[in-house]
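Most newcomers find our protein records easier to grasp once they have seen one. To make this concrete, we reproduce a full record directly below:

…
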Amino acid sequence: MTDTAPRPTLEAVAARAGVSRATVSRVVNGGDGVREPLVERVRRAVDELGYVPNQAARSLVTRRHDAVAVVVAEPETRVFADPFFALQLRGISKELTGHDNQLVLLLTEGRDDHARVGRYLAGGHVDGALVFSLHLDDPLPELIQRAGVPTVFGGRPGWSDGTTDAVYVDSDNRGGAREAVRHLVGLGRTRVAHITGALDQTSAADRLDGYQDVMGDADPKLVVRGDFTPAGGERAMRELLDRCPDLDAVFAANDLTASGALRVLRERGRRVPEDVAVIGFDDMLPVAEQTDPPLTTVRQDIEEMGRLMARLLLRDLDRGSGGATPAGVVLPTTLIRRASA
């Protein structure tokens, strides 16, 4: 066995820096009122001694845990299979890490998990929450409001509990969908179908609205419900071909849905884009560049959405309840043209 060197203390740092213990405490805990030369001396002593602040003691002073809950309202099988979530989590993680905050990931499989998440948030373990992939009947918004933690949502809120001041980050789903469908119409396509996402989510509803903005008088049979997954895209594409064998274009609610649709079109002997043009939504490169043919799609900056969510929350935490935070930020989208349309 070997002896372990004792951990440096505040007193040791104070002695090395030639200042009081209270001065060291204010510096390491982020307090104000210390002159810059003294701050530099303390920081130099901290580095030389390898002092690590006690987080519990620091929290008593700052009222902060330097931890943020990231709540994804989806089962883990979906989260770890869909690159959308990886991109958004990467953006969140980069921003939190850059501000020395920890990410606490919470997933929901069912109603019991919702209650667990609500209890955790109400327990004072984190400074705030970032929540995305909500569904319209999700109890999380009410649980979060009851917990009283600062929160930023990913996606336009769609619940009807009277809350109007929710802070959120979203992409221009409706405008992006309009641009995609206009592109298909501009190619001379007249039977443009739409495979929706899960319509209990506002992103899918907004993309359907964008499709209908351009194709308002289209045959209702050209719209089939999907669920943002490749399997859902396959099912919907088969249904569309059985209903409307003369369709000549498909706007899919996301890239995963489009990848499933492309597989079915290939199975049925339909050439893309000669017989049927296909456009997706997201521009997730692991999907869009590897489909056959490569996918024309609407790009939203998923990673930047995550970073901006975290940035807004941290800004709100630093400012306190007295500051003003924008209620909603909507990022632009861009049509990325590849070989499928």
